[in-house]
Design brief:
By secondary structure, the chain is mainly α. The protein is about 65% helix and about 0% strand.
Length: about 80
């Protein structure tokens, strides 16, 4: 090491990464993932499909409930 390099190190010490210690909760949770980009037209279609499926499920549950009620009455 030359004399000039020694002086530079004395005047300008090597920078240490200034990082604060991680908290336990920071290590525990994963970083959030971004939502997929969906065109607004498709969002309306998807919501409509979801509502249709929920309506179909509700109708099936009502039929099952009626069937169970019919079986319970004679007993």
């Amino acid at each position: 090491m030359s004399e000039e390099e020694g002086r530079k190190k004395a005047v300008f010490p090597s920078p240490l990464p200034s990082r604060r210690p991680e908290r336990p909760e920071e290590r525990r949770w994963p970083s959030p993932t971004p939502l997929p980009v969906v065109p607004t037209e498709d969002v309306g279609k998807v919501l409509k499909q979801i509502l249709n499926r929920l309506d179909a499920i509700e109708k099936r549950l009502e039929r099952i409930e009626k069937m169970l009620m019919a079986k319970q009455l004679p007993v």
